[in-house]
Design goal:
alpha+beta; 8 helices; 17 strands; 2 domains; about 350 residues; two-stranded antiparallel ribbon
Length: about 350
Amino acid sequence: MAEGTSTPTFIDTNRQSLKSRSHFANWTGRTRRFTPYTKTPKSRKSVQQASRHGDKEQGIPLKRFVNKTWYVYQVTPLYQFLQDAGSLKRYSRHLSSHLQSEAQKGHGFETGESLGARALFQKVPGLDDIEGNSEGIEITVTSLQNNVGNTGSPRVILTAVLSSFGTKDLTDFDVLSKDFKRFPVLLVKGLVTPLRRTIAWLESQFDCRIRRMSFNPVHLSWMVAMWTGINNGPLSKPVELKYSVPPTIKSLSYITMTIQQEDAAKLWKCIHKGGIEDGVLSEEVADYRQALESHFFVHFKIQLSAMTLKRIGTPLACVGNEGRLKILMSSGVRTVLYHLTEVVLENAGHIA
């Protein structure tokens, strides 16, 4: 038994666990059918290729994205969306009026009637392209609530970030008319009602469509492969893959495989052809997932390949199939946004 190998953990819905040790450093890669659910590229840029800025210089402002639960939405191009200060102030006034008008109709937010809802559009500091243009617009909605004992101070009820980070690098996609702006990724967190009304206003104002993004097992496989090797030092989270169990099995609903980041990174290095700055191939992603599932099968005799991958966790981020996202490192925010941009643009034709 080799020293320093991973201890996989099997967790069911009753929080039972089993542990074992194995050696996968000599794994050479066995082939199996890897069927994509949607059109996927043959390769993607690595973390280093996708990052165009020094994290040391711009990592601090992007901490606003870290350790918060976001939901990912995809957005079609916005018609006549402008980013100058005057336009952003105008959008703030118009959205504020829209939210207040909806509240006056007697439809408040989740807790009490909305009083004085205010929206603010502003550029995200630190999220700029190589020419210094902003690639992120943050929409913040605050409100006073008509509750007994309220001090009158506003509270944030919605935060939404429109991101176009990476679109200029992804040259395989159609060039837009000058009247359109592409902000394909929308990250949101907050109350459901103001979110729904804000989305409705954006769709009406800029003739776009916005819908929740879902990530299929192929999307999640790419993320776990590309982000496994990112090390956050002693704070690095282990690599996790959560699978849903077929409904014919009544005793449990999910199985989660957990592997220490160092061991998962060693396995990835055995599979990835080339250096850390080289692109990642779809065959490597398929082989990596197969290796992890085979590793699990050796110890528990459970075929994870017969189940559906629902959630992944890496030192960089945790992502769920329902579009839930939690970024764990400020230095990796651009990496995550770049990858989300690529996935959303590939999936753009699926917005109904």
